[in-house]
Amino acid sequence: MTSCQKRMRELSRVIGSVTTDHEISISKGNHIQVVIRCGEEQRKLFSGKTPSDHRSLMNFKSSVKRAYQEMGGPKEPRF
């Protein structure tokens, strides 16, 4: 298993704790692109293929939480 596959699996687990309506793919710029949806709204978030530091996953988790709340999702997601 490559580091990219491992990273995508970790991101899927984090996003799945907030919403089940999401897509994960590789962007043209060779980053991981995540699309989360809440009702009719959707938001694109990007992450590096490999973690740059030990906090990168936690920082992405807070970005997902913030974006989901801005779209009108529950204030307390299921982390």
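[next item in queue]
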Amino acid sequence: MSTENKKKSPLYVEVFEKLFKLINEGVYPIGSKLPSEPELSKMMNVSRMTLRQALGLLKEEGYIETIHGQGNYIKQNVNVKGVGLEKIDNTVFQCCTETIDDIDAYFEISFSDDYDYIKKIFNRDSAVMIRFNRWYKSKNKIVAHAFTMFPSETASLYQMNLNDEQNVLKILEEDIYHLIHSSTIEIKFTETVLPSSHHELHSNNNLFVLLIENLCDSMGNVVLKNKIYIPVELSSIKINRINK
């Protein structure tokens, strides 16, 4: 595309990008107050209306909050330099905005009932499958659900003690992300979650982010599959990209 055909960004977007850069560089640290609107308008050489549109974008993105009668502040919980999904780590903690303080978990071991499906996912014939459910809580409220499945060979490979639920939980929550070679995540939206007789995950909008995650070994074979459900209002998915 020729440069003549490229559209210039709206002025308020340019102001948003300038303010974001100042926040990112620490000119306005987390918890600090932005200059007043008249001051910012003068600094950016724009009208108050344009500035407010830019501030609206910052607020929408979660970088600032407005305290009535006081002004605009850089949010305490924002991490503009933070790492997103490009780093292999616990995906629930990366994508759920709530502070998780407890996990309800249980798993079951069963014989494979669909060999073709298992072979397609894990590229192996496995007679025994482990299915692990985790419900993540924040202040006694369920804020996310992860359904995990893997063949018994994965349990052996990563030295899971299937007689010790806490051992398996620790490996799935922490260790596995340091031991695998790579992962893929497919992001979808859904109105339904997996049913449970003892736990229920709610969404104010009846809409959930569904993250389908495959963890792979050095040969590219899937060793473990996660389906993660997070209410859209409690989710934040960030992927940092750069040109190389």
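[queue empty]
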